[in-house]
Each structure stands twice: as C-alpha cells, then as structure tokens.
Amino acid sequence: MRFDSLIERALFACRWLLAPIYLGLGVLLLVFAVRFFRELGELIWHLPTNNETDVLLHALSLIDVALVAGLIVMVMLSGYENFVSRLDIDEAEKAISWLGKLDAGTLKLKVAAYIVAISAIQLLKGYMDINLVPNDKLLWMTVIHLTFVVSALLLTVMDRLTSSDRTHS
Questions:
Q1: What is residue 144's predicted lDDT score, i.e. its pLDDT?
Q2: Domain ranges of the chain
C-alpha cells in the first residue's frame, strides 16, 4: 500500500471522531427538553397569579427553547449524515426526508435564520419588560439583532451568487 493511500484512509477514518460530538448534541437536546418542561411547569404553576405579559414572556421562552432544540436536531442529524455516515433508519426516512437535502451551505443558512429568530424573541422579551430593561441594554440587543439580520441576508446573497455561478459553469 502506498504512503499517500494510507494517509488518505486515515484521514477518511478520522471523520468518526465527529460521532461523539453529535452524540453530545443529543445529550444537549435532553438538557433543553428538561429546561422546556421545567419552564412549562413553572408557567402552569404560576398561571393563576400571572398577568398576560408574564404568560406571553413564558410562551416566548418556551418557543425560544423549541427553536434551539430544533436547531440542535438539524445540526446533529444533517452533520452526521453529511460528514460521518448515512443514516440507515428505514422507518424514519419519510419523516426526515429533508435531511438529505441539507448540505453545509443550506445548513449554514438555516442556522443563520434560527439565530435571527432566537435573537428576535430575546429582543421582544426585552421590549415586553421595557420598564425593567435598561435603555443601553435594549439598544445593544437591537444592534446585535440587526447585525444577525444583516449577516443572514449577506449569507443568503452569497449563497445565491455561488449557486448561480455553479449552475452557469
């Protein structure tokens, strides 16, 4: 066996070092599930004494956790499929048919969109508690959110430009 072939096989085998990372994301998903149900329980427990704003803030927190959890699943499954090995789960194939369509570029755009949505929820929560949140913090939250929005738009434009370059070549 040639030396370069040995190196190539070793490098290819190293992709399996990503598998424990994706399993770790599964554990992180469990952490978020616990957080979600703790937050939901708190909402239900305090429902009689909460006003409409408190209920809305709890709902936004639950949506925030759900978005992050969905992002974890997307990165975990598509990352494993793209970089480690194809998933051989027959019964789930139809349920996760989107998985094969997520390349690294598409995943990056979806992550950017999720970050913008999560940032928007945090900003909305800040505006809902506008009397408790200092103005300078609210300003920074707005600036950071707008930075995420502009970044996501630029990523989308760059992806469109590079994908149109690929189709014309």
A1: 92
A2: 1-89, 103-169
